[in-house]
Every structure is written in structure tokens, then in C-alpha cells.
Amino acid sequence: MAHENRHSRRDVLRAAGALAGCGGLTLLAIRPAAATPAMMQDAVRSVIGEATITKGKVKLDLPPIVENGNSVPCTVSVDSAMTAAGYVKAIHIFNEKNPQPNVISVRLGPRAGRAQFSTRIRLADSQTVTAIAEFSDGTFWSGDIDVIVTLAACIEESIH
Amino acid sequence: MTAAAIPMRLAAFIAAFAVVSPVFAAEIPLNERRSDSDFISADTRAMQNDDSANPGMLAVADGEALWNAKAGTTNKSCADCHGDVATSMKGVAARYPAVVPPLGLPVDLEQRINMSRVADQKATAFRIESKELLALTAYIGRQSRGMPIAVKDSGPSKKFIAAGRAIFERRQGQLDLSCAQCHDDNWGRKLAGNLIPQAQPTGYPIYRLEWQDVGSLQRRMRGCMSAIRAEPYDYGAPELIDLEFFLMWRARGMAVETPAVRP
Amino acid sequence: MARALIHVPPTAKSGEIVEIKTLISHVMETGYRTGVTGAPIPRDIIELFVCTYNGEEVFRAQLFPAIAANPFISFFTVATESGTLAFSWTDQHGQTQVQTAAIIVE
User: Fold this and answer.
1) Distance in angstroms (rounded) separating the CA atoms of residues A82 and A135
2) Is residue B223 included in any domain, yes or no?
3) Cα B30 from chain centroid (whole Å)
């Protein structure tokens, strides 16, 4: 990942924040995102290969406006009876603006009872988060959600 | 310079600031006080209210281990003298800061824990803001969860609470802002897209999403001071203790929520 | 040993789908942050989380730096028989920590 030699967003936002009189908006302590939607597509393909992905069956639950990108509650649930005859084998979550496109990859089986899990993720910027589910019949389904990541006002510098 | 001589735009600018800078801060009426939990997102509140999802509970669990660990030259644990934490520490966190003998100076809960550690266990004090001290404070604080804050403004406490109030109401820093201007006068309004809370310290030590860690009220205040471009007081400074004292008195009667989760 | 909190319902009916919640203390350092000197703080994350039920794997998650600090993972499993659920977290250095919880299935 190339390190770009330009003013970081943090610097620009801090300058803007000082003018705004808030005491400086500071971007999250993650380096300016270098990921792009194209990088995310590459990551998706490297995980699931060339299979067709159909939109549907996958519900991604994230707050539409995020209070702090450091910790965003995230629940994925997939429509499946989870029986030996037909179940979700894997669920992968991807993002398009963090420095890295993968978020989590989960493996399940019929013993799960429910194709659903929750975690807390980091989001570096407002973006679309995508979840892809792999079924035991070899089909792939996806769902996505747009999230706005706000910056908390009056964030102190990393002073301890 | 008469009012007529001041350019229109400058007058409008001054007028706008006049709205947020009254001469005396308006104290929040007791029945209008609300926990900072009311000013966070529903998801963050849900995280706080679920003990199996609240990251502050990791610190509480660490605190339980420390409570039961032998320490110092006495080789005694907190439990050896205090017994069951739920009984012996019930309501304790709700009463701090407090003025303690023999010096007649106020201490917060963290300092009180260290006093016992040094004097009674004959162990070294925990470093301020250390993982251990935060864990023990969170564990003891948890024993007061749901109980009303019981800090009183009487007797020896009076002058320290008054000193804390003076700091709270004093403009400071490059932005020339007082705590009161945001937290007494403009709570519930937005600052750069975020709701301003009343700054009621009901849940300390808190797990703060911004820190990705547990931290004390002193840490939070130092951060706030830095954000308004004021020089933060050092950890343990009398000014911070006085401020804590005032803030806990200001929150008297409100329920303890330790360990709270904040953005 | 990192502090971990596990919530498993102590009892369940046979065939009931139960929710399991796990929380572990870990900085999950992304590797993208810089320290006070400007030098990058190296990545340090948990990479793998596995749950087995009486020895059989019922849940597996591969974690990336985008998982928040102090990882919280909750999931479901069918209560099949009484026994032990074992939870293991493995970091990028290959260190594994295991914690167990008992379940009684009626």
C-alpha cells in the first residue's frame, strides 16, 4: 500500500477545525484510507472466486449514523433454515474505505441453528459495508448498507 | 466607540456569541438533570446496558481478581479485610470524592483505594490511570450501580466544592470557553454534529470508544481541557480533585452507572 | 492471559437455539496508527476465534484489523447435549488462549 506524500486528512481537518473554533476535528487514529471499491472487489474475488453473487437473503445491521468509527455494532443475519439439507457455510464482511477491505470471515454449519452473528467493527469513513454469504449449495448471496461515520466533537489529541 | 460605530456584521457576530456567553452560567435545575447516557446513540446505550457486551466489564472482572489478590508486605487481599465486596463496598463509590482525615483534604475514589493499599496492605500504590487502579475502581464503582450519588456540600466539603465550581464556570484556554458554557448552557444542542451532554459523571471509570479503553474522570477532563486549547491540569492536581468534587455534587441524587460506555 | 467474558445460558432445552456472547480484552492494534514519535505502531491482532461444542467445531471467525478493540463476538448454536463449550482466541503470533463454559441441556 503506497504511502501518499500529501497533507493527511487529519492535518486538513485540524486546520479547518481550528478555524471553526471547535478545538480541532481529529480524524480517527487510522491512517488516511487507501482502500478503494476496486480493492474491495479484488478482496471479494480472492475470497469467493468467480462465482456469481446475487443480492438478497443477507441482512446487514449497522447504525446508519455512527457515533464513533472506532467501534460500530454490526449484525449479519442470513435467511436460511440451517438444516443439513441447506445451510450457510460462510459469511464474509467487506468494506470499501478502510485501509484494508476485509473485516471478518465466519464459518458456520447446521449446528449454528441460525445464520447470524454480531460483532463490533472499525470504520474509517462514511462508506458502504457489504456482507456475502456462501450457501451449502454453492450459491452466493449478498447484502449491503450505507453508513455515515461522524467525528465526535472536541476529541482530544492522543493525550493520556 | 458607540454601538452605531460598530460595523453591522461585527455586531451580529458579537450578538451571536452573546447568546452562548452569559455573565453567570445558569445551573441546570435539579429535575432537568439527565445522565450523559441520554445523549449517546441507542447502540452505545445498548452496549452499556448489556453486561456481556459492555467492554467496561472486562475491567470490572480484572478488578475482582485484584480484590482477591494478596498484596504488600502484609500479604493480604482487599477481601481479607473487607470481606464480600457487594456488602462492604455498597454505596462507597457514590460517596466520593470526600474529605478524609487526617489531612482534611479531599480525595477521589482512586486516591482512597491507594491510601488503603499503602497504609493497610503495605503495598506500593498503583500508578494513577494504570490498568490496575482503573480495574479496582471500576469493580468498586460497580457495587454502587443504581444507587444515588451521595456527595454533600456541607462542612469541610464546602470550600473544595466551591473551588471546583469556580473552575467549572471560569473561561479558559485559547478558545476562552468555560465548562459551564457548553454543559450548563448548551447541553442538548449540537457541537460539530454531536450532542453536548450535561457532563454528569455518573458512570466513571468509563469505557470510551474514542480511547478504545477504560479511563477516569480526570482523564476525560484533561482531554476536554486540551480540546478547548487550555493547558490541562496534571493528574492528581488539586484543581482536578476539586472539579471532580463539584461535578459529583452537581450530580447528587443521580444514579451511578459504572461502568458506563461513552463515544 | 487476556481477560475474557463468556456468556452461555447455563441450561437449555434440547434442540433450543441459544445465543453465546464473548468479549475479550485485546488492543487489536491495526498497524495503521502512528505513535507519539511518528513511528508506526506495529499490527497486533487476534486473527482467529473458534468455538467447539464437546470437541466439535460450531463456529469459526477469521478476524482482520477492522474488528474493534476488545473484540465482541456473539453467535448461535443448537443446544444438543450437556457438556463443554471451548472458546479459543489465536493471535497473529500464534499464541492461543482457551476458556471453557459448561452447558446443561435437558
Assistant:
1) 10
2) yes
3) 18
Query: φ, ψ for residue B216 (rounded to 5)?
Result: -90, 170
Residue C23's closest CA among A156, A95, B52, B32?
Answer: B52
Q: Convert the pLDDT of each residue in B142-190 to its tens digit.
A: 999 999 999 999 899 999 999 999 999 999 999 999 999 999 999 999 9
The CA distances from residue A8 to A3, A18, A34, B216, C39, in Å, are: 11, 16, 11, 31, 15
Q: Which residues of B touch A26 (CB under 8 A)?
A: none
Cβ contact B58–C69 (<8 Å): no
**Can you give the pLDDT at residue A25?**
37
Domain count, chain B: 1
Cα separations in angstroms, A135 against A45, A56, A92, A142: 16, 12, 12, 11
Q: Which CATH architecture has domain C4-105?
A: Sandwich (2.60)
Annotated catalytic sites of B, by residue? 224
**Grid cell of B48 as nine digits:** 452499556
Question: Mutation test of the interface with chain C: which of A47, A48, A100, A111, choosing the one with the most C Cβ atoms within 10 A?
Answer: A111
| Residue that has been written with the C-alpha cell 488503603 in this structure | B116
First to last CA, chain B: 46
Residues 6+ apart with CB under 8 A from A2: A34
- The amino acid at residue C61 is A
Total residues belonging to chain A: 160
Global confidence as pTM: 0.87
**What are the residue ranges spanned by the domains of chain A?**
34-149
Question: Range of B59's domain?
Answer: 27-263
Integer Cα distance of B107 and C48 in angstroms? 44
Helix or strand (DSSP H, E) at B206: strand B206-208
Q: Which residue has the cell 500529501?
A: A6
Contact B219, B136 (CB under 8 A): no
Express each pLDDT in A25-74 by its tens digit: 344 444 445 568 889 999 999 999 999 999 999 999 999 889 899 999 99
CATH assignment of A34-149, given 2.130.10.10, 2.60.40.2470, 3.30.565.10, 3.60.110.10? Answer: 2.60.40.2470
d(CA B216, CA B205) in angstroms, rounded, equals 5
**Can you give the CATH number for the domain in which B133 is found?**
1.10.760.10
Q: Which chains touch C (3 or more CB pairs under 8 A)?
A: A, B
Say whether A114 and C63 touch across the interface (CB within 8 A). no
Of B50, B52, B55, the CB nearest to C70: B55
Task: Tell me the residue length of chain B.
Answer: 263
Q: Which residue has the cell 467493527?
A: A121
Amino acid identity at B8: M
Distance CA A88, CA B184 (A): 52
Q: What are phi and psi of C26, to 5 degrees?
A: -160, 135
